[in-house]
Amino acid sequence: MIPSRILVAFDGSDLSARALSMALGIGKAIDAEIHVVYVIKISDYIRFGGHAGPLERSGQISELISEHILKKGIQMEREIAGIAAEYEIPVHVHKKIGDPREEILHLSGIIDADLIMLGSTGSGGLKDILLGSVSDYVARNSPVTTVIVR
């Protein structure tokens, strides 16, 4: 089956940029829609319990989160647009907040993706051993073909 909708997870890393480039090349060759999602994981910026994160101490949590999301969104959109410009095909960009693993899978169902592409961080470490990486989780739980770019 030739995919008609490709979802690419993008986090700004070199491997996610490589996955996006590969998806754009495939999409252009087979005339598939390209959807790109980036997910802002709020838990990276706020700690619950124990030591307070910088946002908890500020007293202006919602304002700082909104400002960060806006800045991060602009940065990601610029990076995505820069990569997509080389291929001269339209790209649908989706911005999400939450757990990247769940948001990628959820969006793939909403847009009826035929293929998911994402980079592997290759970070390893204890966290990935205990929790699994985003790419591994998506590949194990996706009902559609998933390509992990290494």
Instruction: Give the class from helix and strand content and strand pairing.
Output: alpha/beta
The main sheet comes to: 5 strands, parallel
Count of domains: 1
Overall mean pLDDT:
86
CATH superfamily: HUPs
Description of the molecule:
The protein is of the alpha/beta class. The chain has helices at residues 14-30, 54-58, 61-85, 100-110, 125-131, 134-141; strands at 5-9, 33-40, 91-97, 115-119, 145-149. The chain has a single domain, classed as Rossmann fold (3-Layer(aba) Sandwich). Helices cover 49% and strands 20% of the residues. A five-stranded parallel beta sheet has the order 3-2-1-4-5, with helices on both faces. Helix 1 (14-30) packs across helix 3 and helix 4 (100-110) runs parallel beside helix 6. 27% of the residues are buried.
Describe, in short, the structure shown.
This protein is of the alpha/beta class and 150 residues long. It has helices at 14-30, 54-58, 61-85, 100-110, 125-131, 134-141, and strands spanning 5-9, 33-40, 91-97, 115-119, 145-149. The chain has one domain (5-149): Rossmann fold.
Please specify the SSE layout and strand pairing.
Layout lengths: L4 E5 L4 H17 L2 E8 L13 H5 L2 H25 L5 E7 L2 H11 L4 E5 L5 H7 L2 H8 L3 E5 L1
Parallel strand pairs: 1-2, 1-4, 2-3, 4-5
Helix pairs in contact: 1-3, 4-6
Keywords:
alpha/beta; 49% helix; single chain; 150 residues; Rossmann fold
